[in-house]
Amino acid sequence: MLMVCEPTTQKKLSQASRTLELLEVGPRTTIELFAVGPRPAAYVRQLRLMGYIIHSEITGKVATYSLLGQVEMVEVTDAMQSRYYETEHWKRTRRSRLDFDACACRLCGSAHELQVHHWRYDLFAEQLCDLLTVCRTCHLQLHSYENVHCHFPRYVLPEIAERLY
Ligand SMILES: [Zn+2]
Hints:
By secondary structure, this protein is an alpha+beta fold. The chain is built from 6 helices and 8 strands.
């Protein structure tokens, strides 16, 4: 899931634009987007131009949209998400990023309680640059400071879902 906050400052505006750019070339499996703010209609228009189809909408400040295209997406269950982190692919990819960062948090240097942060999700196809080694504390801070949040996709393509059953 990607979250875009209504731009109220130039900084936020550039971050929101960057997210939309990311979506254009972004992971095919990141398909749910929350537009937060008083005027989500602007995002709706832009998302439609980008080929997104509205999946569901909550009136008020939050609206959700999914990249459904012509393909029926499969909703991700907690069990499927857990299984992803148990796949050989993820274990190998996670190990690669930890090795790349010499097993230390890239933000504070700690070697304790290391986790691998996702900048973007591309299930079964993450690149090293999609990830970052951080300690648990920095990981929590990273998420609380971020204007743009990437979370495990809520819907995936059927071929991805098949690998998670
Ligand atoms: Zn840290």
